[in-house]
Design a protein that fits this description.
The protein has about 425 residues and is an alpha/beta fold. It is built from 13 helices and 19 strands. It has 4 domains: about 120 residues, Methylthiotransferase, N-terminal domain (Rossmann fold, 3-Layer(aba) Sandwich); about 120 residues, 2-Layer Sandwich (Transcription Regulator spoIIAA), CATH 3.30.750; about 120 residues, 2-Layer Sandwich (Transcription Regulator spoIIAA); about 55 residues, Beta Barrel (OB fold (Dihydrolipoamide Acetyltransferase, E2P)), CATH 2.40.50. A 6-stranded parallel sheet has the order 2-1-3-4-5-6, sandwiched between helices. Strands 15-16-17-19-18 form a 5-stranded mixed β-barrel. The mean pLDDT is about 95.
Length: about 425
């Protein structure tokens, strides 16, 4: 039988969908496009109301196709009663994604609907191991799940549950397998990646240090890390480890101490700014991107202007802007002084414009330089790749996917730099 997977949301979901795809393929199922598939699997997201609505839209559309329908992920976990009413053939939350192939086989044998959710809050890490990402040059590796931070606006700790981490040796061995299968860059990812702590006491810095010994692994990227987790040990590893990329995604969320406190974030602006200074001393050409939520309860115009000033002062290379989304069950949803949608959209537009300018300024700093680019996409007459500091580079030539090249950067065009090949790098220096 043929199957198709629709993945919504974060890199963790992308990784988990790859697990589902790999396990089904090993069990005789064939991956196909949606129109030809007998089975449609939807891996949902609930991080915002928009994500929830999008997830449900895909489920309703899939129902009309009259295929076998499997739904899993954060949105189904968060909205169990609603999804139970949608006539889904196999419905689960975030647990048991690694055994979806078994549930599909059970359904095919019995034709009885399967609905399974778990009430407990403390889960152990669900072991998963991807051998190869056929659709990505970069390989995502989920090393951690869950979050205990309970930021006041965030529903994720309720749907992903407690913090838990992948076994240290299993994580290393999975990355070794991915590298043996051709991946030269790995992205360490999780719901709260920087909180990685194996049962034998190894932390994220230890894991990065150990996997950097894998000879053919050329780049190590962290999907996102909290500023509070960039401790002395982590900064030292970043300083000495040449395989750690020149890019960190560090969520700010608000540029006002008052709003940070309302959000239940674990730092103030002074702490955040001082850590950024430390990182830039270690890596002067680092790209630091961030997330910012606009329109959180109590954010008035003055506090929004504080956020604008903070973002400019820190000089991020890109800001991912999110209008505050009221998630029922969170502390922020019960707060007074909710900001209306029109105002949230206005603030989003302003901050997105600032982000675009900051990104262009960062790109312009690299004109007339040489950059090492890993090619990820190849088209009829050009190739696209990314630098260590996550600059998108376009080369007007057909190149080899998953190879490194030294590129002379010539000009800026739209949202990428244009370059020409100096040489291919068979070994990344």
């Amino acid at each position: 039988m043929k199957f198709n997977i629709i993945t919504l949301g974060c890199k963790v979901n992308i990784y988990e969908s790859e697990i589902i795809k790999e396990k089904l393929s090993k069990n005789g199922f064939i991956y196909s496009n949606e129109s030809e598939a007998d089975i449609i699997i939807i891996n949902t997201c609930t991080v915002t109301n928009m994500a929830d609505n999008k997830s449900k839209k895909y489920v309703r559309r899939a129902k009309r196709l009259e295929k076998i329908l499997v739904v899993c992920g954060c949105s189904s976990e968060n909205n169990q009663d609603e999804y139970r009413q949608m006539g889904i053939d196999i419905l689960i939350g975030n647990k048991d994604k690694s055994i979806i192939q078994e549930k599909i086989k059970e359904f095919l044998e019995t034709r009885k609907k399967i609905i399974k959710f778990y009430e407990e809050k403390d889960f152990i890490f669900e072991d998963m191991e991807v051998e190869k990402f056929n659709s990505h040059t970069r390989a995502f590796v989920k090393i951690q799940d869950g979050c205990n931070n309970f930021c006041s606006y965030c529903i994720i700790p309720y749907v992903r549950k407690n913090i838990r981490s992948k076994d240290f040796i299993k994580a290393i061995n999975e990355i070794k397998t991915l590298v043996q299968n051709g991946h030269k860059e790995v992205v360490l990812t999780g719901i709260h990646t920087g909180a990685y702590k194996s049962s034998d006491g190894h932390d994220l810095a230890d894991l990065i240090h150990e996997i950097s010994k894998i000879e053919d692994l050329k780049r190590i990227r962290i999907s996102s890390i909290e500023i509070t987790e960039l401790n002395e040990k982590m900064l030292k590893e970043i300083e000495i480890n040449k395989k750690v990329v020149n890019h960190f995604h560090i969520p700010l969320q608000a540029g006002s101490d008052k709003i940070l406190k309302k959000m239940n974030r674990k730092y103030d602006l002074a702490y955040f700014k001082n850590k950024i200074i430390e990182i830039r001393k270690i890596k002067p050409d680092v790209s630091i991107t961030t997330d910012v939520i606009v329109g959180h309860p109590y954010e008035n115009e003055e506090l929004f202007l504080d956020t604008i000033k903070t973002c400019k002062d820190i000089n991020f290379s890109k800001i991912h802007v999110f209008p505050y989304s009221k998630r029922e069950g969170t502390a922020s949803s019960r707060m007074e002084m909710q900001v209306n949608d029109i105002e949230k959209k206005r603030r989003s537009r302003i901050l997105n414009d600032i982000s675009n300018k900051l990104e262009i300024d960062f790109y312009n700093r690299h004109l007339n330089t040489e950059l090492e680019v890993l090619i990820e996409e190849v088209f009829d007459d050009y190739s696209i790749g990314y630098t260590s500091n996550y600059i998108k580079v376009k080369i007007l030539k057909i190149l080899s996917r998953n190879e490194f090249y030294t590129v002379n950067i010539l000009k800026l065009e739209e949202n990428y730099l244009i370059g020409e090949i100096k040489e291919a790098l068979k070994v990344l220096s």
